[in-house]
């Protein structure tokens, strides 16, 4: 931003900026609007005088936050009108920027100060000199989009870092992953059960509330898939995830096990806590696929009494 050298003013409004507004307003063909513009500027200056006089004081003499908000909104509108009406408004913007920057350095509380807000407004408008309202609006939207994309990328990195801290791995889709139940032949009974207990409640929460709360249907706490290795348990979970657009985290119970008392159950609880927080962050369903569940069981006839297993209470 190009800034002119102006004599610093540490109190009150910028008289040079006021003189600029009055001289330019006098050249407007609409004299009624010109008078309104000068009155608007005087209103800003009067409000700024009151706020500056009260700044740093406490109790009933402290600046009213609503008063400060009103001043900032009024000042922003004044800047907007000057940008629209005067081609040499860069002079005004630079003068105001110098004034508020100098005043900010001398104020009693430079942190969290209302002058910072005005300075940011001036930076924004100065960057948009010579642009049409449509171009300015497009730039604002682009800035918002870039900020959202940056936040999404930061959230993604944060989630990836969080995954490394718990005993889960995200299940990556491949070219062979199904796009839904349409890619699975057979298993009609299993697909119907999954549709009733998972897919329908996700796609129609209102109906699910009726089914589970008013009609007395039992809401499943989880689904147990059983069968020999290679029968398609992971594949059906991938298809289910595609049906409800949900990421899948896998937890290998065997790898989560520990020789220390209660550590296995703590690892599992940590995985549940992470997945629940992940789902809340994304505001969408998340699947936790717990593999090798049989490693948590033991042969009853062996007489083994494993304390880790007996005390497994992840909830």
Brief write-up:
This protein is mainly alpha-helical.
- Quick one: CATH superfamily of the largest domain? P-loop containing nucleotide triphosphate hydrolases
Give the CATH architecture of the largest domain: 3-Layer(aba) Sandwich
Largest sheet entry: 3 strands, mixed
* Poorly predicted runs: 1-12, 304-315
Query: Looking at CATH, which topology of the largest domain would you report?
Result: Rossmann fold
Averaged pLDDT, please? Answer: 75
Describe the structure.
It is a single chain. This protein is mostly helical and 315 residues long. It has 2 domains: 15-130; 166-310, P-loop containing nucleotide triphosphate hydrolases (Rossmann fold), CATH 3.40.50. Helix content is 59%, strand content 4%. The protein has helices spanning 15-25, 31-54, 65-85, 89-106, 114-127, 133-163, 188-203, 205-214, 233-244, 253-256, 263-282, 307-310; strands at 169-170, 248-252, 287-291. The chain is elongated and about 90 Å long. The chain starts with 14 loop residues before the first helix and ends in a 5-residue tail after the last helix. Mean pLDDT is 75; it is low at 1-12 and 304-315.
Provide the descriptors you would attach to this structure in a database record.
single chain; 315 residues; mainly alpha; Rossmann fold; three-stranded mixed sheet; disordered N terminus; disordered C terminus
Lay out the secondary structure.
Elements: H1 15-25, H2 31-54, H3 65-85, H4 89-106, H5 114-127, H6 133-163, E1 169-170, H7 188-203, H8 205-214, H9 233-244, E2 248-252, H10 253-256, H11 263-282, E3 287-291, H12 307-310
Parallel strand pairs: 2-3
Antiparallel strand pairs: 1-2
Helix pairs in contact: 1-2, 1-4, 2-3, 3-4, 3-5, 4-5, 7-8
